[in-house]
Amino acid sequence: MPHAIRFHQTGKPEVLQWESFDPVAPAAGEARVRHYAVGLNYIDTYHRSGLYPVPLPSGIGLEGAGVVEALGDGVDGLKVGDRVAYAGGPLGAYAEVRNIPAHRLVALPESISFEQGAAMMLQGLTAEYLLRRTYRVQPGDTILIHAAAGGVGLMVCQWAKALGATVIGTVGSDEKAEIARAHGCDHPIVYTRERFAEQVRSITGGRGVPVVYDSIGADTFMDSLACLRPMGMMVLFGAASGPVPPFDCGLLAKMGSLFLTRPTLFTYTAERDDLVAMAADLFDVVSAGKLKIEINQRYPLSEAARAHTELEARLTTGSSILLP
Ligand code: NDP
């Protein structure tokens, strides 16, 4: 029988259980995918901890790559044996095999391995919408990205650089600063030691940046706003340090007619046409060598709890995958 990671109560990584299950035939509109690699993402820790509540017991994980093993009725454009990858859909990617709505799947180009596919879909599509859709980065822009040596962070650094931007990135250590620098971050700032808002003002000659991509939340939110130039855009897309407390919107006026958005990948990829276009854009930059997928951690799928512990302890850099 195949295995999957499930959890019956929210809490620390130890709540993640390795369980066997009886696979059911895919329902109408679904495909069964045999995973060759599964993506590890920070959002998985929010589901496990209860920050993003889900009905229990639950599977976990939103990203994987593998081969189509069976199809339910009414699925067009896919056949058994196709190489596919996905980000999003129902939880349950931490599994050797799973059923998933077929409209979430994209064909994985031959030039991209299963490991790369599982590492890049969720974080790479996020980089795509952040840089190309939420705030469209222009050559000559100076941008600020937090957690620049992380999974999303290293992708944003490389992609923004390829678009002609100057990249300022915050990181938790000197070692991470070097990793970010090697991936296009012009100005790494160790925000556990330096006041990043002051550094950003100094780097930009006092002007501030047109956009901040902030996935840290509680610890950085107010200082991120202080980095923006008038009419700049605050893109709050995560909460690694905890959620931002209730906020007085009047501050946006006082701080320079700022824009604030709280986007999620799942809104941007809800329409099939958008998902396909974003994936094509991502595969293009990877195939062109502008974006290298750095898989710096690999864990057996059965050891997902250890992977969560290391991710939350800020011990990882780049992307991480789980191997069935
Ligand atoms: P990362 O690899 O970036 O890991 C998280 C990083 O956050 C850590 O390595 C650490 O880097 C930093 N961090 C800062 N403060 C803390 C803290 N208190 N506890 C733990 N980590 C902290 O993860 P991902 O690339 O998977 O995701 C990055 C962020 O983007 C997450 O917040 C995630 O939720 C968000 N996200 C949002 C999406 C959306 O559509 N809204 C989609 C995808 C991701 P350092 O030590 O350098 O500070």
UniProtKB/TrEMBL annotation:
GO molecular function: mRNA 3'-UTR AU-rich region binding; NADPH binding; quinone reductase (NADPH) activity; zinc ion binding
SMART domains noted in UniProt: PKS_ER
Domain Enoyl reductase (ER) span(s) in chain numbering: 11-322
Alphabetically ordered keywords of this record: NADP, Oxidoreductase
SUPFAM superfamilies linked: GroES-like, NAD(P)-binding Rossmann-fold domains
GO cellular component, one term: cytosol
CDD domains per UniProt: QOR2 (cd05286)
NCBIfam families per the UniProt record, alphabetical: PRK10754.1
PANTHER family in the record: QUINONE OXIDOREDUCTASE PIG3-RELATED, QUINONE OXIDOREDUCTASE-RELATED
Name of protein: Quinone oxidoreductase
Species annotation: Parazoarcus communis
Taxonomy of the source species: Bacteria, Pseudomonadati, Pseudomonadota, Betaproteobacteria, Rhodocyclales
